[in-house]
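Chapter review: from sequence to fold.
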Amino acid sequence: MNVATASSHESTKLTNSTYDVISALAKDASFLYSTVDTYLKDAKQDNRTDLVDLWNTIRQDKQRHVQLLREALSKDAGDQHPK
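The token string follows.
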């Protein structure tokens, strides 16, 4: 396998690093938009304020991760030059 094939996919022209950023962004966004609210609701129903605090902290961390990943993806998009 040559270097070009190892670092990017022919049909998408995405480097492995760009794919990794997109994948991580999707996972964190999915957690924020569909999972964490369920976990918070369950913790509240069980009167577990410790877990409510935990899930809120994790949500804030994930929001920061999403921001960092969006910035990285934006940088990748700006660095792409047609060949």
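Two observations follow directly from the output. The CA atoms of residues 4 and 10 lie 9 Å apart. Helices lie at 3-7, 16-45, 49-79.
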